[in-house]
User: Fold NUDIX domain-containing protein from Roseateles subflavus.
Amino acid sequence: MPPEPLICTVDLVLLTLQAGQLQVLLLKRDREPFAGALALPGGYVHTGEDQSCEDAALRVLQDKAGLQGLYLEQLATFSGPGRDPRGWSVSVAYLAVVDAGTLDAQGAPVRAAHWRPVDRLPALPFDHGRIIATAVERVRGKSLYSSLPAHLCPAPFTLPELQAVYEAVLGETVNHVSFRRKMGELDCLDAVPGGKRADGAHRPAQLYRLKQEFRQRLRLVGRGLKA
Amino acid sequence: MPPEPLICTVDLVLLTLQAGQLQVLLLKRDREPFAGALALPGGYVHTGEDQSCEDAALRVLQDKAGLQGLYLEQLATFSGPGRDPRGWSVSVAYLAVVDAGTLDAQGAPVRAAHWRPVDRLPALPFDHGRIIATAVERVRGKSLYSSLPAHLCPAPFTLPELQAVYEAVLGETVNHVSFRRKMGELDCLDAVPGGKRADGAHRPAQLYRLKQEFRQRLRLVGRGLKA
Assistant:
């Protein structure tokens, strides 16, 4: 049986941490359907130029959010007859993560008004609410056993600053000693030579960055933070 | 810009455990391209009847392998201009897992000759080798912190039998005491009332089944088996 045509798009869930909360980038749609509504950045696959759906997602990130070089992973594919009024559609959704310092460094091309806390979203078109919920669950789950939260922490950072990021993502405090042991096991950080930050009454704390090899791929460990 | 048409299929990686090895179901393709070649079961999305890509995967599992009611999860989406000679394509790949007992009970409609050990695959068309490798990595990774391997163990089973399944999937032995503690934490098993199996010189061992609520979704724990 010859295949029936269907719509194939990519959607991008770009998350950052601001004001201690996970926030997602939403842009005003410039065309129907739902023109004028806030929605996830996304777009059609351009078969003439994209080499993969991941390519399409990187293109959308660059063209619609002006960002590149971020941590990106495929989230899940959402499909069906009812998610898009234009017809049966398949959307390959991607998760990207960026820290507030990188947003500044890349010129904060997306204005502050475009970010929304993931726990207080407006009504969204298509199944974007469900896609965002899936992304948040992925980030929270991976925070238990990987270096993912480090991508949300402006570098260079102290270990207490990184711990605060893990706690903001997880929505709960983490045992201080467990955290340091976990970071030791992950071994995903480089100390900045001579880099220290004064921290109030405490002696200056060592500064760290993510190791180069873990900037595009995650470091995972077997024992989670909650073990 | 109007979207260019592309091919959208689902592909199914159905894994079982036989002879202590993870094995994947491969079927002879009955049409071009690659007619006659062994490949993953798959098919086009039928927008007239499927409510989602998952629906399409379940339909393929039923129609091409004669199986239903198995544990199924979305694996990943593979895409690009070169994976299918018919043109730019997107394939939403699914992972399904079945134990040897269920295969027998459902009439083993797929003959033994169709299974291949995942570590000794023939040359495969499209990017099916890569899709299978992704599925095996997923199963091995999830075996460290979930109930997934229980779906590969004919029920009812003893704890030593279940431990042997985890070890066959992981490719290494697991500490006996750690395993029993992990099964306690997972709390995903029901003891069969009065059900025991004699085990050679040992006293008869208790028989178990997966709890009903974990037959379609996995039970996860924070601390992995290798911790």
